[in-house]
Amino acid sequence: MQLPQLLFPVDDLKIIEKGDILYIYDPIRYQYLKCTPEEYVRQALISHLINNLSYPKELLAVEKQIFVNKLSRRFDLVVFDRDIYPLILIEIKAPNVKINDKTLLQLAQYNYIINAKHWVLTNGLNVLFMTYDKENNKIDFKSQIPTWYELGKSDNK
User: Fold this and answer.
1) Which of 41, 49, 56, 101 could link 124 by a cystine bridge, Cβ 3.0 to 4.6 Å?
2) pLDDT higher than threshold 80 for residue 67
3) Is residue 123 within 8 Å of 94, Cβ to Cβ?
4) Strands (E), 27-64
5) What is the distance between the alpha carbons of residues 141 and 126, in angstroms, rounded to a whole number?
6) How far apart are CA 32 and CA 106, in angstroms?
7) pLDDT digits over 84-141, tens only?
């Protein structure tokens, strides 16, 4: 499989090949997983969050089950704050999946359950960082994910 160039650095990723299949290491789940296009983006983003943006690894959760309209779903990634409340809900798509209203709606539906203040939507080629203002029912869009420190300052922590 030809791995695409992403917005996130990929130099720190641990990728091995067994037979004709690539596997990528997940430092949150402590295991190698099949390196699908979506998993490649997820692991590149996790590495970027931890190594470049100083997010604490212990505050990340990957692919946990939630129920949306009584249907079982799995969120891609959640960053918790120091009090273990959901801070950022992250929806990850493969690079060939366009970021559009449909993917944003999926993220919003998941957030109805998760209730995170910030959202990230990415396919590895594009990234949207959003802050939801519940009081005014407004979303503020940015094209970069803030550092852990910047995020804490913006949340007055």
Assistant:
1) 41
2) no
3) yes
4) 31-34, 60-62
5) 13
6) 27
7) 999 999 999 999 999 999 998 888 888 888 889 999 999 999 999 999 887 888 888 8
